[in-house]
Backbone:
C-alpha cells in the first residue's frame, strides 16, 4: 500500500512543527525520516498514524483520504519509542491483543490466534519469553515484542518512532540490521523516524532529511550522502571541515578554515570537505595545498584521525588509512601539507 | 488547580535520606525521636487507647449489649447503606472525570478541578446546610416535597445525599495524578491495534490504575461511614430512624451514656484501623508494581 | 465546539466523560451550593451585614481563626519533627507509627470529639494531670485547640514527608564536608527546600481547622461569645430556623476559606516541590 502526505501543516501553539510538507511512500518501501530534534519527523509520523491531526493537508492511503479517520480504523502498526507494552499483560497477551479486539465477524478462532502469536514471536526470536511480563524483559527484547505486537494485526503500513533510540550502541546496530532483514522478508510499507544518520543510511531504501518542519532532501542513501542538496544535509550526514573558498572556472579553491560563524564576503563561498577526503603529504599536493602542522594523532580505530592546525591556529580534521599513516611516518609537530580530494560548495 | 493530594506514605527513598542523616549528631537524633514519639503518644496513641478503654469500662457484657441495641443496629444499617450508595456512585464519577481530565486538553480544566474539590474544602456543617436549604421545610423545594409527602431532610435520603456530597472528590483526587503519571502511550498503542474506547479502558487503563482506584475507594468509604457534621445538620437527630453511627454516638454521649457511646465509637475506631491497614497494603502493592516496571528498564540487552 | 478544544482528541470518550462529569457535578455539587447564594438574597443588605458581622458572629470568627492558627503552628513544629524522624531515622515500630499518622484522617470526627473530651475533662486521664498545674482544657479555647491539633496533624506530616524523602543526600554531605554543623546545614541548606511544603501543610491544617465541627463541638462547651466556633453558630441558627442568618454567616466563612485555597493554589503554581494535580 502506498502512502501520500499532501501539504501537511501542523503547529503547536506558536511552534510550527510541519510547514506544508508533502511526501510519497511507495508500496513496500522502507523509508527513513531523518532529522534533528524539532525537525517535525515524529509529528509527521504520528499524523500518518492518526495519533495527531494536521491543521491542514491530507493523508492518503492508496489514494483514499484517511485524514479524518481515527487511529483505530487506519490499519497502521505503530511501534512507540518507549515500547508502550501493556505492563499488566504477558508477552503472549501483548502480541495477541490486536487479534483479540477484532469484531466478532473478523476474529480468528482461538487456535489460529495462538498459532499466529507464536509465529510472530518466533520471527522476533522471543518465543521462549511468551509467558514473561514486560518488566522482566530487557530494552531490546521489549522493542521486539512491540514490533511483533504491531505486526500481528497485519497492518498495511508499519510506523516506527525512534525504535532503537533508548538502546545501547551495540544492541542498536544488531537490531537495525535485523529490522532490514525483517523488512526484506515481509515487505510491509514502513516508515521509521530517527535522528541517527548512520541508522538511516544503513537501513532505509530511501532517506528523507527533515529540518525545521520542512523536507530538505529525499533520495536513496547514496544520493543524500554523496549528492547533498544543501549545506544542512551535508553537515547532518557526517563530519565536515568548513573552509572559505573562491570559485574559478568551475573549480573551488579553499583558503583558510572557517572559525565560528562564517561571514562570506564578495566572491567568497563556503566549501565543505569530509575528513576522510583530505589528502596529507610531505610535499605540497595539487591542486590546493595548505601548509599545516600535525597537532594530534589518534590511531585507535578503523581510520587514523589526524588533527591539523594552520598557521593561524585553525583546526582541520583529517582521516587517513593506516597504510598511508605508515607510509608518511607521521609524528606530532610534523609540518605537512593537506589538500582536499572532493569539495562541496553550496 | 486543586490542593495537594495527600499522597500515599512512601517509605521508599529512605536509603538516601538515612544516609544523609548519619551525620546528624546523636543528641539531636535521640532528642528528636523522643520529642516526636511523645507528641504522637499524647495525640494519637492515647486517644486511641482511651476509646477502647472507655468502651470496656462497664464490662464486656455491657459492651455487647450496647452494640446489640435495636437503635444501634439501625444506625449501623444506615451507615452501611449510605456508604454502599455513595462509594459506587462517586467511583463511577471518579473514573469518568479522571479519564476526561487526564487524557484530554481543554479550556476550563482548572476551573472544573476546583469545582470538583468544593466538597473537600467546604466545612461539613455548610455541606449539610446546603441540603437543608434545598429540601428543608423552608427550603427551595420544601413546599413541593411536603405536598408529595416526600421526606428528604430529617430522613435517610437526606443523609445519603449529604454523604454523597462530602465524599464526592475522593476517588477523582487519587486517580488523576496517577493517570497523568502513567501517560497515554499504552492507550494510544491499543488504539492503533484496533481496540475501541471501552475495550481500551477496561483492558488497559483499569488494570494500570487499580491500586489508586482501590486507595480512593478506601478513603471514600472511610469518610462516608465516618461523616458527622454534614449528616448532623441534615438528620434532625431523631432516634432510631435517621441516625448513622456517628450521630448515634453523639446522642448517647449527650445522654451521659458514656460506655455505650464508646462502645459504638470503638466499632468506628476499628473501622478506622482497618482503613489504615488496607491503605498500607495498597501502598505497598503499588510501590512493588512501580518498582517492578522501573527495573528491567536498566539493562539493554 | 471545535474552538473549545485545544486540540482534536485522539483518544475516544471525550464527549461522554465530560458530559457525565459536568452533569453529575452540577447535580450533586453546583446546584446545591448555589442555593447558598439564593437564600442570602432573602435578607436585605443591612440584615446581612448586621448578622454576619454581629458581635456573636465576630466572636465565633475570632475563635475559629485563632484556635486554628494556634493548632496549625503547633502542628507545624511537631509535624516537622515527626516527619523528620520518620524519614531519616530508624527506631522500633517505625512503620507502625508511620501508618498511625493517618489516624486522625481515618477516624470519624465524632469519635475523636468524644474521646478527646473525655481525656481532657477535669477527671480525664490528661485533664487530671493538667489540673495539677492549674490548667483547664475541656470547655475552653485550649480544648478546641487540642482537638484541632489532632485533626490537623496528618496534613503537615504527609505534606512534608515526600519532600524530605527527595532531598539530595549529597548536598547535605557536601555541606558537612565544607565544615557546616547540623544547625547551619539545616538552616541554610535544608530549610529552604522544605519551607514551601511546610507552609502548604500548615495552611492545609489551618483550613481544615477552620471548618472542623465534629471533633470540636464536644470539647468546646459552646458558650456563645466565648467558646462557640463558627460551624456551631451556623448549626444553632439552622436549628432556630434562621436560615437567612445561617447562610449569611456561612457565606462570609466560605469566602474566607476560598481565598485561603486560592492563595494555596497560587503558591503551588510557582512549582514548589509538592504533589499537585495536572
Residues:
Amino acid at each position: 500500500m502506498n502512502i501520500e502526505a499532501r501539504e501537511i501543516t501542523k503547529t503547536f501553539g506558536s511552534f510550527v512543527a510541519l510547514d506544508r510538507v508533502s511526501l510519497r511512500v511507495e508500496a513496500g518501501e522502507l523509508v527513513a525520516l531523518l532529522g534533528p530534534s524539532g525537525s517535525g519527523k515524529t509529528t509527521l509520523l504520528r499524523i500518518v498514524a492518526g495519533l495527531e491531526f494536521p491543521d491542514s493537508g491530507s493523508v492518503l492511503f492508496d489514494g483514499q483520504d484517511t485524514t479524518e479517520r481515527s487511529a483505530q480504523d487506519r490499519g497502521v502498526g505503530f511501534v512507540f519509542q518507549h515500547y508502550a507494552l501493556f505492563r499488566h499483560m504477558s508477552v503472549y497477551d501483548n502480541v495477541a491483543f490486536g487479534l483479540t479486539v477484532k469484531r466478532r465477524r473478523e476474529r480468528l478462532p482461538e487456535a489460529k490466534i495462538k498459532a499466529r502469536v507464536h509465529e510472530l514471536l518466533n520471527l522476533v526470536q522471543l518465543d521462549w519469553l511468551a509467558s514473561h511480563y514486560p518488566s522482566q524483559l530487557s530494552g531490546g527484547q521489549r522493542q521486539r515484542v512491540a514490533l511483533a505486537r504491531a505486526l500481528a494485526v497485519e497492518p498495511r503500513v508499519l510506523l516506527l518512532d525512534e525504535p532503537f533510540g533508548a538502546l545501547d550502541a551495540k544492541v542498536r546496530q544488531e537490531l537495525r540490521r535485523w529490522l532490514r532483514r525483517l523488512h526484506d522478508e515481509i515487505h510491509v510499507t514502513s516508515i521509521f523516524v530517527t535522528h541517527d544518520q548512520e541508522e538511516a543510511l544503513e537501513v532505509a531504501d530511501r532517506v528523507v532529511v527533515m529540518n525545521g518542519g520542512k523536507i530538505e532532501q529525499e533520495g536513496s542513501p547514496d544520493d543524500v550522502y554523496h549528492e547533498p542538496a544543501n549545506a544542512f544535509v551535508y553537515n547532518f550526514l557526517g563530519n565536515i571541515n568548513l573552509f572559505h573558498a573562491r570559485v574559478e572556472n568551475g573549480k573551488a579553491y579553499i583558503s583558510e578554515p572557517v572559525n565560528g560563524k562564517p561571514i562570506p564576503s564578495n566572491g567568497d563561498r563556503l566549501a565543505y570537505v569530509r575528513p576522510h577526503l583530505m589528502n596529507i603529504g610531505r610535499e605540497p599536493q595539487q591542486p590546493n595545498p595548505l601548509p599545516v602542522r600535525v597537532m594530534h594523532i589518534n590511531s585507535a580505530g578503523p581510520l587514523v584521525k589526524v588533527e591539523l592546525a594552520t598557521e593561524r591556529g585553525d583546526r582541520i580534521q583529517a582521516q587517513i588509512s593506516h597504510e598511508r599513516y605508515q607510509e608518511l611516518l607521521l609524528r606530532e609537530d610534523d609540518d605537512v601539507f593537506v589538500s582536499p580530494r572532493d569539495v562541496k560548495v553550496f | 488547580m486543586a490542593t495537594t493530594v495527600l499522597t500515599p506514605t512512601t517509605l521508599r527513598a529512605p536509603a538516601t535520606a538515612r544516609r544523609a542523616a548519619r551525620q546528624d549528631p546523636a543528641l539531636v537524633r535521640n532528642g528528636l525521636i523522643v520529642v516526636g514519639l511523645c507528641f504522637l503518644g499524647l495525640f494519637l496513641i492515647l486517644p486511641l487507647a482511651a476509646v477502647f478503654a472507655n468502651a470496656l469500662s462497664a464490662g464486656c457484657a455491657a459492651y455487647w449489649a450496647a452494640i446489640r441495641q435495636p437503635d444501634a443496629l439501625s444506625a449501623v444499617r444506615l451507615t452501611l447503606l449510605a456508604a454502599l450508595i455513595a462509594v459506587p456512585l462517586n467511583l463511577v464519577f471518579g473514573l469518568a472525570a479522571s479519564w476526561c481530565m487526564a487524557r484530554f486538553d481543554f479550556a476550563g480544566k482548572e476551573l472544573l478541578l476546583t469545582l470538583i474539590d468544593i466538597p473537600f474544602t467546604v466545612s461539613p456543617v455548610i455541606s449539610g446546610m446546603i441540603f437543608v436549604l434545598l429540601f428543608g421545610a423552608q427550603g427551595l423545594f420544601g413546599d413541593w416535597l411536603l405536598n408529595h409527602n416526600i421526606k428528604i431532610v430529617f430522613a435517610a435520603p437526606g443523609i445519603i445525599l449529604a454523604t454523597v456530597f462530602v465524599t464526592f472528590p475522593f476517588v477523582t483526587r487519587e486517580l488523576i495524578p496517577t493517570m497523568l503519571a502513567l501517560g497515554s502511550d499504552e492507550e494510544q498503542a491499543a488504539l492503533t491495534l484496533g481496540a475501541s474506547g471501552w475495550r481500551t479502558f477496561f483492558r488497559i487503563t483499569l488494570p494500570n490504575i487499580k491500586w489508586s482506584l482501590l486507595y480512593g475507594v478506601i478513603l471514600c468509604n472511610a469518610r462516608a461511614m465516618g461523616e458527622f457534621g454534614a449528616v448532623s445538620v441534615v438528620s434532625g437527630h431523631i432516634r432510631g430512624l435517621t441516625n448513622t453511627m456517628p450521630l448515634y454516638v453523639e446522642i448517647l454521649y449527650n445522654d451521659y451514656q458514656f460506655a455505650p457511646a464508646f462502645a459504638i465509637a470503638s466499632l468506628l475506631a476499628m473501622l478506622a484501623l482497618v482503613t489504615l491497614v488496607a491503605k498500607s497494603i495498597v501502598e505497598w502493592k503499588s510501590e512493588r508494581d512501580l518498582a517492578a516496571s522501573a527495573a528491567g528498564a536498566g539493562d539493554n540487552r | 465546539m471545535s474552538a473549545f478544544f485545544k486540540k482534536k482528541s485522539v483518544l475516544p470518550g471525550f464527549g461522554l466523560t465530560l458530559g457525565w462529569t459536568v452533569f453529575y457535578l452540577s447535580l450533586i455539587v453546583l446546584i446545591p451550593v448555589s442555593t447558598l447564594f439564593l437564600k442570602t438574597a432573602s435578607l436585605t443588605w443591612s440584615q446581612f451585614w448586621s448578622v454576619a458581622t454581629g458581635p456573636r458572629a465576630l466572636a465565633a470568627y475570632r475563635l475559629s481563626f485563632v484556635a486554628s492558627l494556634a493548632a496549625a503552628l503547633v502542628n507545624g513544629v511537631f509535624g516537622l519533627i515527626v516527619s523528620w524522624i520518620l524519614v531519616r531515622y530508624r527506631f522500633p515500630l517505625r512503620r507502625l507509627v508511620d501508618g498511625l499518622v493517618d489516624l486522625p484522617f481515618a477516624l470519624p470526627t465524632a469519635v475523636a470529639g468524644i474521646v478527646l473530651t473525655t481525656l481532657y475533662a477535669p477527671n480525664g486521664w490528661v485533664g487530671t494531670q493538667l489540673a495539677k498545674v492549674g490548667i483547664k482544657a475541656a470547655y475552653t479555647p485550649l480544648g478546641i485547640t487540642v482537638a484541632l491539633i489532632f485533626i490537623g496533624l496528618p496534613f503537615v506530616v504527609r505534606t512534608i514527608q515526600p519532600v524530605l524523602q527527595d532531598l539530595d543526600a549529597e548536598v547535605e554531605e557536601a555541606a558537612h564536608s565544607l565544615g557546616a554543623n547540623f544547625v547551619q546545614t539545616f538552616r541554610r541548606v535544608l530549610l529552604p527546600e522544605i519551607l514551601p511544603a511546610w507552609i502548604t501543610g500548615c495552611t492545609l491544617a489551618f483550613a481544615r481547622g477552620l471548618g472542623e465541627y465534629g471533633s470540636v463541638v464536644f470539647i468546646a462547651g459552646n458558650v456563645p461569645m466565648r467558646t462557640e466556633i463558627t460551624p456551631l453558630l451556623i448549626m444553632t441558627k439552622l436549628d432556630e430556623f434562621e436560615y437567612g442568618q445561617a447562610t449569611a454567616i456561612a457565606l462570609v466563612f466560605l469566602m474566607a476559606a476560598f481565598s485561603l485555597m486560592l492563595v494555596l493554589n497560587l503558591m503551588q503554581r510557582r512549582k514548589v516541590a509538592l504533589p499537585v494535580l495536572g
User: Anything to note?
Assistant: The first helix of chain A runs from residue 41 to 49.
